[in-house]
Each structure stands twice: as structure tokens, then as C-alpha cells.
Amino acid sequence: MGVRRWIEGWPVYRQWTRHDPTGHGAAAQSRVSANLTPRTAGADKVVKSICPYCAVGCGQNVYVQNGAVTQIEGDPDSPVSRGRLCPKGSASLQLTTGSAREHHVLYRRPHGTKWERLDLDTAMDMIAERTIASRAKGWQWEVDGARTRRTLGFASLGGATLDNEENYLIKKLFTALGAMQIENQARV
């Protein structure tokens, strides 16, 4: 009796006796896997998103339960990735729930050795002040007699995860500020 039960539990035997020769159906399930529930079963809602890692823009389904992200999977409705994610995209849950995620601004003063916390308003004011000062210090009205109205005091290097609209707005901003060096990592 024990041998027969062992043979009937064998996946190849189940494939042929249950008319599942490819082993994609119930024949491939064990008793343990038949009782498993998906990690997404308890989600209150599913939010469509895009993977933040590269310029491909793979679609993601973000599963939320009680206001917290519980799982991130590939979006099968995405024409870009058709439900597939690379290893980095598959691990993107840690971006929201990982213990190494920072939830506040950190600043290290020039020649400093320690990071200090800043509130967002203070950090944004520091960025604005430094941008204005760099622009004023590096402003060029003319170069070799030709009117330029530009600054070489700062530059912009966009990330690969920015979409066309974001890149367009960044280009407009830095051009309006007079910057000359405006580049994007996705094109490099």
C-alpha cells in the first residue's frame, strides 16, 4: 500500500493519469503547494506603477493593505514588460519597506564627518540659495564679443528613470536658468 501511494504521489505518474502531459496543471502541485495562498491575496487595492530602476519603464502592480505596500509584481497589462520584471524590478519592494530606506533629508557639511537631519523646507532653501549663488558667480553675458547669457556654474545630469515629460520640464528649467551642460543618463 505504501509503494502505491508513493507512485501515485509521483509527479510524472500524475501527469499521465490526469491527462496533463506538460505538467502545467494540477499534476505539478504537491499537497503543500495546493494549500498555499498568494502573497497578494490580502491586498485592499492594487495600484498601477512603473519600475523606478531604468529607462525601460516596466509596469508594476503595487499591492496595498491597510495603507502599506505589501507586494510588488509585474503588470501583465503592461505593453512594455507584459508582466515580467528583471531581478532589480522584482526586488523593488525593498525601496518602500526596506530597513535601509531613509525617510528624512540627511546633510553633511563641507569637511564634516557626520550626517545631520534637516527638515525638507530647510534643504530646499539651501538648494535654491546655492543655485542662485552659482548662477550669479558663473554668469557670462558675453564670450569673445558674442552675446551668450549663460552660466557654467552648474549642470544637470538626469536619471534614466525619468520619463519624457519629466526630462522636458528639467530641460526647460535648466535652460531658463542659463545652464549649458544639460544631459541625461538614458541617452549616454
Automatic annotation (TrEMBL):
Segments spanning the bilayer are none
Q: What is this protein called?
A: Dehydrogenase
Species for this entry? Amycolatopsis acididurans
* Keywords of this entry: 4Fe-4S, Iron, Iron-sulfur, Metal-binding, Oxidoreductase
The compartments listed are: Cell envelope
Where the record annotates domain 4Fe-4S Mo/W bis-MGD-type, the positions are: 44-100
Q: Which domain of life is it from?
A: Bacteria
Q: What is the lineage of its organism?
A: Bacteria, Bacillati, Actinomycetota, Actinomycetes, Pseudonocardiales
Cytoplasm among keywords: no
InterPro entries linked to this entry: Mopterin_OxRdtase_4Fe-4S_dom
The principal localisation class reads other
**Which cofactor(s) does the record list?**
[4Fe-4S] cluster
Q: Which family does it belong to?
A: Belongs to the prokaryotic molybdopterin-containing oxidoreductase family.
Q: Does the keyword ATP-binding apply?
A: no
